[in-house]
Design goal:
The chain is mostly helical. Helices cover 77% and strands 0% of the residues. It has one domain: Up-down Bundle (Four Helix Bundle (Hemerythrin (Met), subunit A)). The mean pLDDT is 90. Keywords: Electron transport, Heme, Iron, Membrane, Metal-binding, Transmembrane, Transmembrane helix, Transport. Its main location: membrane.
């Protein structure tokens, strides 16, 4: 028997709530697992994976999920409060990413190793630089009058779309990091595949959220 439109809508909403809840758990659980693995403080390098996991897995994911109508932890608050929380989390993510980048650069310098010679290094550098540009671009949403020919709705849409690109770059950097000798030596078998699924899951949830925002905007125009 075919599902009614109302039943399909409820099922779809339930799936979005479940996937959003899973994204929250993964966003927190992945950095926690990295912390156990890296043992921050045991070496200079140990801070790099933890800071990058905090930046791109936890802080940035939570900053984007704040605007989810189903799974935002602040959905009962006003949009103004959510925007401020988004800004705070994004700035913290950028700070962690910059510290992580600085630490690995200095660590390679101490050990006489080349800088940004792997796909992980290049993608990570690009993700950090992009995050900085994205934060700077977010200023336009605070002062939309600077862009007189753009509506606030269009600025929000493009900011969300470009933010998705930056988020995917960050997730790609995490996944490439899990292909490194350090990670593959410590994590093997099914655990490695499970770890790789973490950024994939959060990426799918965030992409769905952004695409829904785009579809909502298109419908509101008609």
């Amino acid at each position: 028997m075919a599902l009614t439109a109302e039943t399909e809508s409820r099922l779809y909403r339930s799936l979005r709530v479940a996937s959003g809840a899973a994204a929250h758990l993964v966003a927190l659980g992945f950095p926690a697992a990295v912390a156990v693995l890296a043992r921050p403080g045991s070496s200079l390098f140990s801070w790099h994976p933890l800071l990058m996991a905090l930046a791109f897995s936890f802080l940035m994911t939570e900053a984007l999920l704040i605007f989810s109508p189903e799974t935002s932890l602040l959905r009962s608050f006003s949009r103004k409060v959510r925007v401020r929380a988004h800004w705070a989390l994004q700035l913290l993510a950028l700070l962690c990413a910059l510290l992580g980048l600085g630490i690995i650069t200095y660590n390679k310098h101490l050990n006489g190793k080349g800088h940004f010679v792997t796909w992980h290094g290049l993608t990570g550098l690009l993700a950090v630089l992009y995050a900085g540009g994205q934060c700077a671009g977010g200023v336009l949403l605070l002062y939309p009058k600077l862009m007189k020919n753009w509506t606030l709705a269009k600025l929000r849409l493009y900011h969300a779309t470009s933010g998705l690109v930056g988020y995917l770059l960050g997730c790609a950097s995490l996944m490439l990091g899990m292909c490194s000798l350090w990670f593959t030596t410590a994590v093997t078998g099914a655990s490695w595949y499970l770890a790789m699924l973490c950024p994939l899951l959060t990426s799918l949830v965030i992409m769905n959220q952004v695409s829904n925002a785009y579809l909502y905007r298109k419908r509101s125009q008609h």
